[in-house]
Design a protein that fits this description.
Elements lengths: L8 E5 L2 E5 L4 H5 L10 H10 L4 H9 L3 E3 L6 E6 L5 E13 L6 E7 L9 E3 L7 E5 L2 H13 L4 H5 L1 E4 L6 H9 L5 E4 L5 H15 L4 E2 L11 H6 L12 H5 L17
Length: 265
Amino acid sequence: MIWLVHQKIITLFKGKKVTVTTPFEKQESLLIPEASKDNNKIINYLRNERGIDIGIISDCMDKGKLYQTKTYSNVAFVSRNQEDEIKHIFLRGTIKTIDHETGKIQSFKMDSKGSDKNFPFTLGGNPNATKVYVFESSIDVLSHATLCKINNMEQSLTSSHRIALHGTSFGALKTFLKDNPNITTIVPCLDGDDVGKRRSKKMQEEFSQMGYIVENHRPPKVGKDYNEMLLSCKEFGINKNISYQTAQTSQINEDPITECDGVEI
């Protein structure tokens, strides 16, 4: 895969060097971490720690939405504009560490330098889809899609879109709606905490005034977010305490999810 960035042009004006930037200044400054030679660690992390369907993982990697960084083996979630230029990269660590002062388990996560949060992480349906499910994080987008597959609702993956806002601001949603004028219905699937509820209400108010059908806030029925809901499935077929050494020797093309009875989405 070739990463395209715009370069600065140095020219002379009245005998002095002047730097002229391209129109995509933020794209130029975006730090795109070098990709690893393989994606084994992030596949194991997403499958065994997060429960994401292997087919969804593979599809996202094929489309350049996911890759493993060379340094630290982080998961890179990639957001692009309509011209297929990378505009935002969210990095999430695959290895957990312990804070020696608090004793709490920590995991690395951050936006890559220069990322523009106005561009969502997307899991697109067919071009004629008129509904979009809106989440806070990329992991929740993948988790909701996995829950659809578990519950034999795979048609929803093509009949609707899923996007992540990289938080709770609406800039990414506005960009998506501008780029997809056929969207008529918005489904807020933000977290079930107070912030998620408050921002979902704001989303209803703001976008209904723009003429969109905005459904009621649809938080996960179990846990704070849709990944917690996914991991709460009783017959999940995943040992969540599996070590990375063991995970690396497992077959990465075998879907570990068996069933998730009784979970509604």
